[in-house]
């Protein structure tokens, strides 16, 4: 029977013509939904750490921060400027650095000077709000000993020095 069936000529003509070419399907809603699934949100604001002990020299500061969320971050934008009481001075120019890590050592700073820092996180979706501002201070310059004013006797010595810093120094340590 199968052999007889296969020998027969079968007419496969359709009685109606297919109408595929005129149909337009709108995929815009599906495309929007797919795009929203693939987008990552802009990161949250990082948190700048307070200045750590021994994180400063006379001309450099090591600034650290953290991101307390699971946000995707490509890099950070660190902004800083010297703290000044003078309105709109040239020294108040804000500097900006792009950094991959959650820390940065800034060099070529002035001794015994306060600097204000803030940091933002960046990814493909945008930039986070800036962190709260933190103030860091560089170490004072070593004082200059006035060798012509040194006096000594059997039980005492008088040593005089002067600070080269513009801002007042809190205290000095003298080692014998």
Automatic annotation (TrEMBL):
Residues 46-142 form the Fibronectin type-III domain. SMART domains: FN3. Gene3D superfamilies: Immunoglobulins (2.60.40.10). InterPro entries: E3_ligase_FN3/SPRY, FN3_dom, FN3_sf, Ig-like_fold. It comes from the Eukaryota. It holds the Pfam family fn3. PANTHER family: E3 UBIQUITIN-PROTEIN LIGASE TRIM36-RELATED, FIBRONECTIN TYPE III AND SPRY DOMAIN-CONTAINING PROTEIN 2. This is FSD2 protein. It comes from Aramus guarauna. The lineage of its organism: Eukaryota, Metazoa, Chordata, Craniata, Vertebrata.
